[in-house]
Amino acid sequence: MKAFYLISYGGSEGAVYGELHDPVMGSDQLLIQVKAVSINPLDFKIKRGDLKIIVGSKFPKILGSDFAGIVKEVGREIKNFKAGDRVYGALPIFFGKPGALSELINIQSKYARLIPEGMSFDEAASLPVASLTALNGLRKCGITNGKHLLINGATGGVGHFAIQIAKAKGAVVTATCSSGNAELGKKLGADEITGYKKDDLTKIEKKFDAILDAYGKMKYEDVCRLLKRKGTYASTLFMPTSALSSIMVWLVFRKKLTSSNLRANPEDYEEIEKLFKEKKLKPLIENTFTLEKAAEAFELAEKGKPRGKIIIRI
Question: Which of 102, 170, 196, 278 could cross-link to 145 by cystine, CB 3.0-4.6 Å?
Answer without folding.
Answer: 170
